[in-house]
Design a protein that fits this description.
It is built from 25 helices and 30 strands. About 40% of the residues lie in helices and about 20% in strands. With about 700 residues, the protein is α/β, with parallel strands linked by helices. The chain has a 7-stranded mixed beta sheet with strand order 9-8-11-10-12-13-14, with helices on both faces. It has 4 domains: about 1-240, Rossmann fold; about 290-450, Rossmann fold (3-Layer(aba) Sandwich), CATH 3.40.50.261; about 500-575, ATP-grasp fold, A domain (Dna Ligase, domain 1); about 580-705, D-amino Acid Aminotransferase, Chain A, domain 1, CATH 3.30.470. The structure holds coenzyme A (COA).
Length: about 700
């Protein structure tokens, strides 16, 4: 990556004397940015371009060459790649468009480019990208004429249009960039590679990424987790529509669309996800200019009660707490502020507040040990000198050990003040909500860092041979869906408890089985062709007499036969009725990220309630703790309203075991236990259902590429 970010020599292939051509602009940008290394224009006509000797080809350059930027039409690119390989170039940036974004032919051309790069061991940025800027290295190898200020924000973007918006924002907001990378079609270099470099880049304090897809999802997570331990990563992921649910046959599949998988991946990698470019800009700004808060206590200072209330409301939405001031703070505020002022948080310095009154309040709350960040709100009342207050807040720039931000709420009257603060590198927003959201992101990052803890995944030993034998036998019979009893055998092989049960062929057998197991019992249809048994009348719970068992047997067989004609039916399973809360634990497999584990409140209403959460296996203890705590019904598990606490530890254990099955057997594409019954504390967890689906053979090559 060093040869991408800090090359000592660059050739611009397609450099031209025609000022309108991209090759001219790139060369000119490199010259204008005072690039300190060697620069070579390449043009078949030779001669001189922008005062420098042009060479007819890369191989004509005397001495070694580290980087080539290609700005010639796509059909000529493969030949230049070969030439670059022969020359020993380390990194090629392909600005040229006209590759896979154009369809099949372009995709083939792109693949060829990738193959040539591999053959010679070259790295490639692009194609179809804007290039790269590294302000510390004084290198602008892009074709944009927007020059961001030097600063600590690194940006990587998959879209050229978003790139130019970000650059323009940078000049307007005065937030400077350390690096700026347009990744384009990502034939080779992707965000994971960039993070690997940026993690150790001393000039970068915060990273912003605009992402459309992460094809190497697992590698992206790995690099992001390492990087986020050192510096925050803010990601704007577009394309929230769900595609993952299309082919799924389980509830889990329907609940885990691809966007939810990205959510899970980002959470596990300690990435802050944002929804809009505005939010991205707001948050980058505060990370770029302010120190991290030590805790989550916020002090609000305002000259207008309404804004203070709005900011206080936003606190809980964004994970901040309204700090409770110490007695001394309150006394001190009382001693100076007018009697009508509110000295409790939010501090209302009143509509006629002077800059001096604001200053006293800011200084006083910053001394309070419960305060970790400050938001200063201003409404443009006729009695306030907006610029004086702005100058006062600006004076804190670079001199504070906690974040302070402004929210100047208005339009014409607040504009100049807001601008002054931005120029002074104090984040200032046009609404209380945005200010609190930005501070909330800092608190969230701080908490993520603190909670990161042990990143070792939990590993479990299961009976692999037994599971392999079950899968092979299902494959031999030409099926991809396992019967419930086969699914439960897999669970047992990995130490998951399943209640006693017997599959019966006749009503009489069923009555006998019920007597042996002990009443009451649950009766379920056993068929590999029926995924959702209760939908077709294939489940009866709480059957309390042998007589009823016989009756339900006959009734169930006839109902199911008429509702699913042609389904292969093994019989009716009679099983012990276990008590507990109904939970769902499932697994689906994502193309980019691998096995996705779903946990939540189970039962037949799971798709309506949608109270589930996802994580990507392998799982750490921390991941599973977060999963369990993040569902809305968590209080039900801990014993809300006098109820007994559930056996949460045994639930966690099952989650780890399901994750292990999914890692050990990549050909299991879906697995679901719905419900799994969790008993009271110490009473364990029983899987009363099991749905296991295998990958179709054709899909398996794709999974094996995912590796672990
Ligand atoms: N080696 C070196 N120079 C070469 C060459 C080669 N193999 N083949 C051609 N050239 C020269 C040309 O002679 C020309 O120089 P000249 O002006 O002195 O005649 C120069 O390179 C440029 O070639 P040209 O054919 O004029 O191309 P162009 O400048 O019109 O377009 C691209 C080239 C790359 C800009 C264009 O194909 C393209 O992809 N544009 C879109 C870029 C884009 O949007 N990228 C994504 C952004 S997010």
């Amino acid at each position: 990556m060093k040869s991408l970010f800090e090359p000592e020599s660059i050739a611009v292939v397609g450099a031209s004397n025609d000022e309108r051509k991209i090759g001219h602009i790139v060369l000119n940008n490199l010259i204008q940015s005072n690039f300190g290394g060697k620069l070579y224009p390449i043009n078949p006509k030779g001669g001189e371009i922008l005062g420098r000797q042009a060479y007819p080809s890369l191989t004509a350059i005397p001495g070694p060459l580290e980087q080539a930027v290609i700005c010639i039409p796509s059909k000529y690119v493969p030949a230049v790649m070969e030439e670059a390989g022969v020359k020993g170039v380390k990194t090629v940036i392909i600005i040229t468009a006209g590759f896979k974004e154009l369809g099949k032919e372009g995709a083939l051309l792109e693949r060829r480019v990738g193959e040539i790069a591999k053959k010679y061991g070259m790295r490639v940025l692009g194609p179809n990208c804007m290039g790269i800027m590294n302000t510390r290295h004084r290198m602008n190898a892009t074709f944009t004429n927007i020059r961001p200020a030097n600063g600590s924000v690194a940006i990587a973007s998959q879209s050229g249009a978003v790139c130019s918006s970000m650059l323009d924002w940078s000049t307007e907001s005065q937030v400077g960039f350390s690096n700026f990378i347009s990744v384009g079609n990502k034939v080779d270099i992707d965000e994971a590679d960039l993070l690997d470099y940026l993690k150790d880049d001393p000039a970068t304090n915060v990273i912003g990424i605009y992402l459309e897809s992460a094809d190497r999802g697992r590698e992206f997570m790995r690099q992001a987790l390492k990087t986020s331990a050192a510096k925050p990563i803010i990601v704007l992921k577009s394309g929230r529509t769900s595609t993952g649910s299309k082919a799924a046959s389980s509830h889990t599949g329907a609940l885990s669309g691809s966007d939810k998988v990205y959510d899970a991946a980002f959470r596990q990698a300690n990435i802050i996800r944002v929804d809009t470019l505005d939010e991205m800009f707001d948050i980058l700004q505060v990370f770029a200019h302010m120190p991290l808060p030590k805790g989550d206590g916020l002090a609000i200072i305002t000259n207008a009660g309404g804004h203070g209330v709005m900011a206080a409301d936003a606190c809980s939405d964004y994970g901040l707490t309204l700090a409770t001031f110490e007695k001394e703070t309150i006394e001190k505020l009382k001693s100076y502020l007018p009697p009508a002022a509110n000295v409790y948080n939010p501090v209302d310095v009143l509509g006629d507040a002077s800059a001096a009154r604001y200053e006293f309040a800011i200084k006083t709350v910053m001394e309070d040990p419960n305060v970790s960040c400050v938001a200063v709100l201003l409404a443009p009342l006729d009695t306030v000198d907006v610029m004086k207050v702005a100058e006062l807040i600006a004076s804190y720039s670079g001199k504070v050990d906690m974040p302070i931000v402004g929210a100047f709420v208005g339009g014409t009257k607040t504009r100049e003040g807001l601008k002054l603060l931005q120029e002074s590198k104090v984040p200032c927003y046009d609404s209380p909500d945005k200010a609190i959201r930005a501070l909330g992101a800092m608190v969230r990052y701080k908490k993520m860092q603190e909670a990161a803890g042990d990143t070792t995944p939990v590993e479990i030993e299961g009976d692999k041979q037994k599971v392999r034998a079950i899968i092979d036998s299902v494959r031999r019979s030409g099926r991809t869906t396992l019967s419930e009893s086969e699914g439960k055998d897999i669970l047992r092989a990995y130490g998951i408890s399943v209640p006693d049960e017997v599959t019966c062929k006749t009503a009489e057998e069923a009555a006998k089985a019920a007597a042996n197991i002990g009443l009451p019992v649950v009766m379920k249809i056993d068929s590999p062709d029926i995924a959702h048994k209760s939908d077709v009348g294939g489940v009866v719970v709480g059957v309390n007499s042998e007589e009823d068992v016989r009756m339900h047997f006959e009734l169930m067989m006839s109902k199911v036969r008429s509702r699913v004609p042609g389904a292969h039916i093994n019989g009716v399973t009679v099983c012990k009725m276990v008590e507990g809360k109904e939970i769902l634990i499932g697994m689906t497999r994502d193309e980019q990220f691998g096995p996705v584990i779903t946990f939540g409140l189970g039962g037949v209403f799971v798709e309506i309630m949608k109270d589930v959460t996802q994580s990507i296996a392998p799982l750490t203890r921390n991941n599973v703790d977060t999963m369990i705590k993040s569902i809305r019904s968590y209080p039900i598990l801990t014993g809300a309203r006098g109820g007994k606490a559930a056996d949460i530890n045994s639930l966690k254990d099952v989650i780890f075991r399901i994750a292990q099955i999914s890692l050990d057997f990549p050909d299991v594409s879906e697995l679901e236990i719905n419900p799994i019954m969790v008993g009271d504390e110490g009473k364990g967890t029983y899987a009363v259902d099991a749905l296991v689906v295998l990958r179709r053979k054709a899909d398996e090559d794709a999974i094996s590429k995912l590796g672990d």
